[in-house]
């Protein structure tokens, strides 16, 4: 029946040059543009590193272990994402939902570990001028020196990893909408409240948590304007976005963390 | 979606149905293994230039596996593959041409 539909309309519409449906092509085009955003950030980081003498290598083994676990979370989330796509094309709605929730869980684990690492680095003195000071905490002199002598390090580190963390957060929200639709909005609002109230006022995550609130508002509008059942093509398109987030981390991890590891 | 889009989406879904689960687990295992190798190499006191080359090489292989198998580009038509990969590579080459000679120039001139 699907083939006859193509033949009937072929006289009116030309078949797709790229052999696939338009929203998938749209997502690919978005990902191409987004890859240039991350490309520019990675180039800025590398430029800073090459052109600055005494570039710090401040990441102790705890940071490297933490970043390695984060990488494992993202790689596992990519596996669960392809299994969600596979379940969706086989018409297994329950499997699709479960694998999407597993992907979201891995993504959330990544964000929590990343947030914990940021908080530790900020408390130890690796900070940006815009971040509030951590009260009653003695900053480690090594990181204070880094912030003063090579401010490009903190700026590029927080800029690059923050942009990636934002993408992961938006990816989790996207998958939540595809998996649970309207039921996800109250969950997202609860997550926002927990993230906002559980983080101290001096933490950048206290304000960053509002991304969840903005996400809840935008998703509510989308679900209200265009309520629909998400099919396998929607899951596949969401999967493309998720894998891209994983793909970008494959370059951030070695360039930012491994190349800046403190070897004793 | 209109009828032709539904028909194309169904055809794409049919392609996905032929992929076994085992392949994805192999790719996932290979990605984890390469990550472990990267972390191991970090602590081998290698020359930074040599280490950067190896790490970026492994990252490119990992990226190719993710794009090819997880993002399904390996199974797309060739026009899709060429459009996506050529355009992004061309832009990154342009960035390289503009950024890096300048970065090294600043380093060698000692401009603070």
Spell out the helices and strands of chain B N to C: HHHH
Q: Name the chain pair whose interface involves the most residues.
A: A-B, 63 and 63 residues
Radius of gyration of chain B: 20 Å
Q: Could you tell me how far the N terminus lies from the C terminus of chain A, measured between alpha carbons in angstroms?
A: 66 Å
Uncertain spans of chain A: none
Tell me roughly what share of residues is in helical segments of chain B.
over 70%
Number of beta-strand segments of chain B: 0
Largest sheet of chain B: none
Give the topology string of chain A: H per helix, E per strand.
HHHHHHHHHH
Give the domain tally of chain B: 2
* Average pLDDT level of chain B: 84
Oligomer: heterodimer
Rg calc of chain A: 21 Å
Percent of residues in β-strands of chain A = under 5%
CATH class of chain A: Mainly Alpha
Runs of chain B in which pLDDT lies below 50 for 5 or more consecutive residues are none
- Dominant shape of chain A: globular
Give a brief outline of the structure.
Chain A is mainly α.
Task: Label this structure with key terms.
heterodimer, A: mainly alpha, 10 helices, B: 112 residues, mainly alpha, 82% helix, flat
Explain this structure.
The complex is a heterodimer of chains A (264) and B (112). Chain A is an all-alpha fold and 264 residues long. Chain A has one domain (24-260): Cytochrome c oxidase, subunit III, four-helix bundle (Four Helix Bundle (Hemerythrin (Met), subunit A)), CATH 1.20.120. Chain A contains 10 helices and no strands. Chain A has helices spanning 2-9, 22-51, 61-89, 93-123, 141-149, 151-180, 184-198, 204-208, 210-225, 232-257. Chain A is globular and about 60 Å long. Chain B has 112 residues and is mainly alpha-helical. The mean pLDDT of chain B is 84. The longest helix of chain B is centred in the last third of the chain and has 32 residues, at 78-109. In chain B, α2 runs antiparallel to α3. Chain B has 2 domains: 1-76; 77-112. Chain B has helices at 3-17, 21-42, 48-70, 78-109.
């Amino acid at each position: 029946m699907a083939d006859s539909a193509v033949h009937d309309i072929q006289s009116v519409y030309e078949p797709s040059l790229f052999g696939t449906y338009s929203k998938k092509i749209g997502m690919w085009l978005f990902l191409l543009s987004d890859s240039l955003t991350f490309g520019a950030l990675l180039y800025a980081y590398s430029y800073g590193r090459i052109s600055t003498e005494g570039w710090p290598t401040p990441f102790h083994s705890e940071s490297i272990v933490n970043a390695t676990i984060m990488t494992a979370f993202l790689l596992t989330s990519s596996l669960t994402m392809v299994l969600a796509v596979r379940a969706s094309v086989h018409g297994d709605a329950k499997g699709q939902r479960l694998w999407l929730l597993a992907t979201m869980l891995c993504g959330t684990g990544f964000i929590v570990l990343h947030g914990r690492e940021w908080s530790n680095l900020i408390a130890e003195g690796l900070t940006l001028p815009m971040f509030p000071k951590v009260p009653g905490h003695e900053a480690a002199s090594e990181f204070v020196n880094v912030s003063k002598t090579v401010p490009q390090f903190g700026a590029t580190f927080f800029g690059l990893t923050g942009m990636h963390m934002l993408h992961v957060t938006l990816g989790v929200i996207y998958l939540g909408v595809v998996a649970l639709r309207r039921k996800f909005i109250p969950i997202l609002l609860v997550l926002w409240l927990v993230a906002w109230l559980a983080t101290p006022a001096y933490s950048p995550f206290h304000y960053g948590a509002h991304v969840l609130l903005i996400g809840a508002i935008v998703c509510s509008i989308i679900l209200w304007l265009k309520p629909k059942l998400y099919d396998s093509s929607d899951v596949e398109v969401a999967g493309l976005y998720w894998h891209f987030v994983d793909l970008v981390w494959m370059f951030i991890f070695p360039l930012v963390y491994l190349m800046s590891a403190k070897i004793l | 979606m209109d009828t032709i889009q539904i028909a194309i989406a169904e055809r794409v879904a049919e392609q996905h149905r032929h992929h076994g689960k085992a392949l994805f687990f192999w790719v996932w295992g290979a990605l984890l293994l390469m990550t472990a190798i990267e972390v191991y190499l970090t602590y081998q006191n290698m020359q930074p230039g040599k280490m950067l080359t190896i790490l970026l090489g492994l990252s490119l292989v990992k990226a190719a596996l993710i794009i090819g198998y997880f993002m399904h580009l390996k199974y797309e038509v060739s026009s899709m593959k060429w459009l996506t990969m050529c355009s992004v590579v061309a832009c990154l080459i342009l960035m390289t041409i503009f950024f890096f000679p300048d970065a090294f120039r600043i380093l060698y001139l000692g401009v603070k």
